[in-house]
Amino acid sequence: EAGVAQSPRYKIIEKRQSVAFWCNPISGHATLYWYQQILGQGPKLLIQFQNNGVVDDSQLPKDRFSAERLKGVDSTLKIQPAKLEDSAVYLCASSLERWDSNQPQHFGDGTRLSIL
Amino acid sequence: RKEVEQDPGPFNVPEGATVAFNCTYSNSASQSFFWYRQDCRKEPKLLMSVYSSGNEDGRFTAQLNRASQYISLLIRDSKLSDSATYLCAVNSPSGNTPLVFGKGTRLSVIA
């Protein structure tokens, strides 16, 4: 089974620039998550989708971050404009169904973002 | 009190040693518990789910203590390849609440 695919693997931009990340979840997984992992910390949820609907975006800094999953499969996460503190690894994960809380989440390789 | 807490370590242990990590959680109604392994500069990978009765997978044993609100991971006969960061994750019972991860415990197994 193919895993969660993310691109790009690495991105370096200057502050105030824009950046976008792409994620393709495991086939058949209805739930998709975007996490931010800062060095030395655990992953922190930014946004959770169930199919193409947003379930939880309470920790998404909406003044600069946006995400969409228009057709309920692929998703993009955008940052505009980027700040220095956005330097982190952005992880995408997917799971079968949200309401089955015993379903584990499977992570992609992540995108390592560096802001100069 | 943070939702999920772990001792960051590092735990430096010799090959063959037995090592155990704990992870405490604050929400007594939490229902699902997981241990993830994360290698340096890699994504977290599911190591094992934690069941109420405890569960074992080879050299790894996971246990849940609801009364004291912690989960544990025991690694027997440590191998060099076990060196990694071990993240615990807890799911709150509310339908819209996602997994909450701890900061992770770093393990170094030394030859």
Please provide a written account of the structure.
The complex is a heterodimer of chains A (116) and B (111). With 116 residues, chain A is mostly beta strands. Chain A contains no helices and eleven strands. The radius of gyration of chain A is 13 Å and the shape is globular. By secondary structure, chain B is mainly β. Chain B is built from no helices and eleven strands. In chain B, the strands form two sheets. In chain B, strands 2, 4, 5, 9, 10 and 11 form a six-stranded mixed beta sheet that branches. Chain B has a five-stranded antiparallel beta sheet with strand order 1-3-8-7-6, with no helix packed on it. In chain B, a hairpin with a 4-residue loop joins strand 7 (60-65) and strand 8. The radius of gyration of chain B is 14 Å and the shape is globular. The N and C termini of chain B lie far apart (37 Å). Chains A and B meet through strand 5 and strand 10 of A and strand 5, strand 9 and strand 10 of B.
SSE blueprint:
The complex is a heterodimer of chains A (116) and B (111).
Chain A: E1 5-7, E2 10-13, E3 19-24, E4 31-37, E5 44-50, E6 53-56, E7 65-68, E8 75-79, E9 88-95, E10 106-107, E11 111-115
Parallel strand pairs in A: 2-11
Antiparallel strand pairs in A: 1-3, 3-8, 4-5, 4-9, 5-6, 7-8, 9-10, 9-11
Chain B: E1 4-6, E2 11-14, E3 19-25, E4 32-38, E5 45-50, E6 55-57, E7 60-65, E8 70-75, E9 84-91, E10 99-101, E11 105-110
Parallel strand pairs in B: 2-11
Antiparallel strand pairs in B: 1-3, 3-8, 4-5, 4-9, 6-7, 7-8, 9-10, 9-11
